[in-house]
């Protein structure tokens, strides 16, 4: 008998994690070996538990799921990561894939889609839910959306924090980079998106739903991020 697929479950809502854990516990061949409520915990748990598959939310307190994916993949290039998100916006799926995720499943998908995706990602296969695959295809029609997709994972993460009105210093501290890197990236982001000012950048972010996509604890004021 093959050993179970060992899973690290990452979501900032305890009740949501409990629901996923209950679902996975009923499945033969799957075992949740660790959980995390934020990005820092996720990275630490990955190091300590060495899971076969990481199933993660994207909007997390502190560093986002995108940054977590990038850090885990930097530590282990063979890490197998599946994003489980409530949003269907294609830019997030694209950025998650660029960061190193093998799969992206929306939370509106039936349970069997998530379970199949876990097995696919474990086997090293890419997995997308049907709704996100369709959204990715349709997104290719939008020029502005395509411009957003030219951002690197780090630039996308900096844009997330810029839209939240974080200072260069705060962004540097959050991402563990220099303020000079933040300033240089800020300039490149505006150039890639074809805007000349921060006001234009914010308007474009709103138009492309980046603001709602990237909701965080700082934005909702409740101390816990919006489940993504």
Which descriptor suits the 3D outline? globular
Radius of gyration: 17 Å
Number of domains: 2
Uncertain ranges: 213-228
Describe, in plain words, how this protein is organized in 3D.
The protein has 228 residues and is of the alpha/beta class. The chain folds into two domains: 5-139, 3-Layer(aba) Sandwich (Rossmann fold), CATH 3.40.50; 143-220, Winged helix-like DNA-binding domain superfamily/Winged helix DNA-binding domain (Arc Repressor Mutant, subunit A). It is built from 13 helices and six strands. It has helices at 14-25, 39-49, 65-75, 90-99, 111-122, 130-139, 143-148, 153-163, 168-175, 179-193, 198-207, 210-213, 217-220; strands at 5-10, 30-36, 53-56, 81-85, 103-106, 127-128. Strands 2-1-3-4-5-6 form a six-stranded parallel β-sheet, with helices on both faces. Helix 1 links the parallel strand 1 (5-10) and strand 2 (30-36). The longest helix has 15 residues, at 179-193. Mean pLDDT is 85; it is low at 213-228.
Q: Which short descriptors sum up this protein?
A:
single chain; 228 residues; alpha/beta; Rossmann fold; Arc Repressor Mutant, subunit A; 2 domains; 6-stranded parallel sheet; 13 helices; globular; disordered C terminus
Structure summary:
The chain has 228 residues and is an alpha/beta fold. The chain is built from 13 helices and 6 strands. The protein has 2 domains: 5-139, Rossmann fold; 143-220, Orthogonal Bundle (Arc Repressor Mutant, subunit A).
């Amino acid at each position: 008998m093959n050993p179970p697929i060992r899973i690290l479950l990452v979501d900032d809502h305890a009740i949501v994690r409990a629901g996923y854990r209950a679902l996975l516990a009923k499945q033969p061949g799957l075992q949740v070996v660790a959980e995390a409520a934020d990005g820092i915990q996720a990275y630490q748990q990955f190091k300590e538990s060495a899971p076969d598959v990481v199933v993660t939310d994207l909007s997390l307190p502190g560093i986002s799921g995108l940054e977590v994916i990038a850090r885990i993949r930097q530590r282990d290039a063979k890490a197998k990561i599946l994003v489980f998100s409530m949003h269907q916006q294609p830019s997030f799926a694209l950025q998650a894939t660029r960061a190193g995720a093998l799969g992206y499943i929306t939370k509106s998908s039936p349970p069997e889609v998530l379970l199949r995706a876990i097995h696919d990602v474990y086997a090293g296969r890419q997995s997308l839910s049907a709704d996100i695959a369709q959204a990715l295809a349709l997104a290719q029609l939008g020029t502005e959306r395509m411009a957003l997709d030219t951002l690197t994972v780090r630039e996308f993460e900096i844009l997330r924090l810029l839209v939240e009105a974080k200072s260069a210093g705060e962004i540097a501290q959050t991402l563990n980079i220099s303020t000079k890197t933040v300033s240089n990236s800020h300039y490149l982001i505006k150039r890639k998106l074809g805007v000349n000012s921060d006001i234009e950048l914010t308007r474009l972010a709103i138009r492309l739903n980046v603001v709602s996509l990237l909701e965080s604890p700082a934005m909702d004021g409740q101390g816990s991020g919006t489940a993504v």
